[in-house]
Amino acid sequence: MKETNDFSPRRHVELFHLLFLAQLGQKLDKRHYALKGGCNLRFFHKSIRYSEDIDLDLQDIPAEKTAAVADAILSSRSFADILRAYGLAIARWSKPKQTETTQRWKVALAVTDSDMILPTKVEFSRRGMVMETRFAAVDPLIIQSYHLSPLLVSHYAAQEAFEQKIAALADRRETQARDVFDASHLLNSGADPARFPPILRERLPRAIENALSVTFPVFKSQVLSFLHPDQRQPYDSAEVWQDLVLGLVGRIEGETR
Questions:
Q1: At what angle do helices 158-171 and 177-188 cross, to 10 degrees?
Q2: d(Cα 224, Cα 217) in Å, to the nearest integer?
Q3: DSSP E strands, the chain
Q4: The whole model's pTM is what?
């Protein structure tokens, strides 16, 4: 097994995400949840951005069952043994938000032979899986880099993930640079603004306004450190960031007419 002490903090967190998803798949019906957000982009759409958290959509699974399953995973001795084998441990965890719509767990990861404590979250949203999902294997290159067994997870395809990111750009109270970066990546991966549903088209002016508001310093503070180290340098440029934003805006603003 590869020594995880050589991993960056981002990779330690990503390893935990994969190990948690493997446990979740053994305890919940995979047809009733779907991976979204940054983990979906990393594991299925070749994003170079590491994700801080795991975000999933749920349907037809009561909040009580979700809580029982997540609690059992995070507190189980068998999961602790698995994490230990990879140089990780859960230092502490809590579940600060538990509603019928959103359930969130905060986890602090400890790394063997290190003083690092790495925060992450697991969040389930119960707003309905109205978009098409796919059941597929996580990118083999990622799996092999951690010496894990193949992992199958339900997730959103590029078009659906793109629409989620544009909706997030339009609707978040605080615009996030990662939404702009991710939307640009998905656009370059084949997502098509011409396929936006009418309800999303109505929100495009707000999404465009918010995308244009994200400055390079904000991108650098929020996103750059979450990129793979080998690929940070090309994005460490105000000109490159401006081109990325304008390229995204240029592709979607035609759908407002």
A1: 150
A2: 10
A3: 33-36, 54-58, 88-98, 102-111, 117-125, 133-137, 152-156
A4: 0.94
Q: How far apart are CA 236 and CA 216, in angstroms?
A: 9
Question: Are the C-beta atoms of 48 and 83 separated by less than 8 Å?
Answer: no
Interior angle at CA 207, CA 206 and CA 211, nearest 5: 115
Domain boundaries in the chain? 4-156, 159-256
Within 28-157, where are the H helices?
A: 37-44, 63-75, 77-85, 140-145
CA angle 180, 155, 39 (to 5 degrees): 50
In 3D space, the residue among 15, 25, 11, 55 whose CA is nearest the CA of residue 156 turns out to be 55
> Is the pLDDT assigned to residue 89 strictly greater than 50?
yes
pLDDT per residue as tens digits for the range 211-242: 999 999 999 999 999 998 889 999 999 999 99
4-156 topology per CATH: Nuclear Transport Factor 2; Chain: A, (3.10.450)
Strand order in the sheet with 88-98: 88-98, 102-111, 117-125, 54-58, 33-36, 152-156, 133-137
Q: What are the backbone angles phi and psi of residue 90, rounded to the nearest 5°? A: -90, 110
Name the one residue in this structure whose structure tokens are 């979906």: 40
Residue 7 has pLDDT above 70, yes or no: no
Strands 117-125 and 54-58, bridge-based pairing: parallel
Tokens standing for 41?
């982009």
Percent of the chain predicted with pLDDT > 90: 90
124: tokens are 């389930």
Q: Is 108 exposed, middle or buried (0-12, 13-18, 19+ CB in 10 A)?
A: middle
